[in-house]
Structures are given as C-alpha cells and as structure tokens.
Amino acid sequence: MRRSIITASLLLFFALSASAQNKFALTYSIGFPTGETSDYFNSTSWRGVNIDYHYFLEDGFAIGFSTGWQVFNDNLGYVTETSGTETLSGYRYNYLNSFPLLVTGSYFFDASGELTPFASVGVGLVYNEFSQDTGLLRDEGTGWPFAVRPEIGLDYEVSYNVGIRASFRYNYVASGDELPSLPYFAFNLGFVWSN
User: Cα separation of 37 and 126, whole Å?
Assistant: First the structure.
C-alpha cells in the first residue's frame, strides 16, 4: 500500500510539472508529537519527507496538493498490563506511519525580494498505520481519517527560480477507523523551485 501511494503521488507530481506558473517543494520533515500522539510517543520523529505542488491562479494565490511520509517510533521499555484475569508483560514498541494526501490553498505574500513569506491550509485524508508491539504480540490498526493542516513558512530565492524553504506545520488528524486522533507539529526544511 505504501509503495502505491508514493508512486501515485510522484506520478501526479511530475505530470503537473509540465504546466506553467507552478511552484514545487521537496522538504525534510522533523515531527513533534502532540495531543493523543504524545500519549504513545515521547520522542521526536527525525524521519519525514514532504512533496508540495502549487498552481498559481493569480498573483500570490495558489491551489495545489501536499503529500508526504512521517514516521514515529518509540521504545517504552518493559511493561506489564492487566485486564481482568489476563496479564501481558514484555517490551513495548509503538510505531506510526503517516501519509497525508491533502488539497491545499496557499497565499504567497510580497515576492519582490529574496524572501517570500507564505501561509497555507491543507484539507484531506491521512493514511495512518499505527501499531503497538508488546513482546511477541502486535496490536495494529490502519485507517484514512480526516486531516487539516495549517502552515506558515518562508521561501528564500538562492538563484533564478530555485530556493530554500523553511516552514512550520500543524497536522491535525481526526480519530476514525478505530484509530485515535494522532496530531503532530512538523518543522520542514528543503528545496523549492518554480517554472
């Protein structure tokens, strides 16, 4: 499933690149658990990537899509849980693979200089794979919950139509499909280019 989502996203990304008035971004993402996500993960996620596409409708305003992959994992150590007459003991590992697929609306403020601040909102679905391993047993769930993602950032133009992007996102992921709400903050740093 993961491979087909990534392949479809990349094909769409490169198919749209033939059009005029476009902006693309490829960023590395560092995720910080918040809300219910922090109940399962204490550590920062250093494994993330995002692909963003913007099609400009008029000066400053663009629509597009955003996709990516953020991985959280945590070793909670040795745990013992009792439910009724059953007791489970073992080392606990939690894993979350999050793949957002969002439609975005973005506004790029005054682009007359080298720095271009922007604000963006994305709405869509997130494919989440969440699992908890305790000893040899695994409890896992997958789902496509609703997501909203506000973002603020800066594009710094290094040379003609090529630059560096830094942004901060809040990924709100609703509960659904027997999964809890799994929101997180992300700091993104990468490349941006336009044609």
Answer: 14
